[in-house]
Amino acid sequence: MVKILLIQGSNMNLLGIRQPEIYGKTQAAELDRMLLDYAKAKGCELEIFYTNSEGECIDRIIKAYHDKVDVLVMNPGGFTYYGKAIGDTIKGVKLPYVEVHLSNHYERDIHSVIGDAAQGIIMGLGIQVYFLGVDAALHLAKKKK
Fold this sequence. Notes:
The protein has helices at about 20-25, 30-40, 55-65, 80, 85-95, 105-110, 130-145, and strands at about 5-10, 45-50, 70-75, 95-100, 120-125. It is an alpha/beta fold. A 5-stranded parallel beta sheet has the order 2-1-3-4-5, with helices on both faces.
């Protein structure tokens, strides 16, 4: 069974609360339930991990490597701007990585400093990016085997 780790980076625990005009009204717990159901229907194992700490994020990525997680999906949230060490860790452990963002960063003139570690970036489609991220992770896991 394909193992996917979804990391929700800084401020993502505030989904549905923080700037709903940009990030939508779906709350974190509601999204988690939907994603776990989606992953189960797709026949994969999904773990969701929230952190507001860059160090915890790095530690969890290294643990994912040791736990033989197949693919990392992450919305870096606030780490998007300054989390270069997170990207270096992803590259270091050679974990396939899909980055997701609820909003379109090109519209907002945002550049992800982690994005260069990703095989693909999905953005601008609201919560749908997470479901597409799981699908992309499954695609990458098939290519890996």
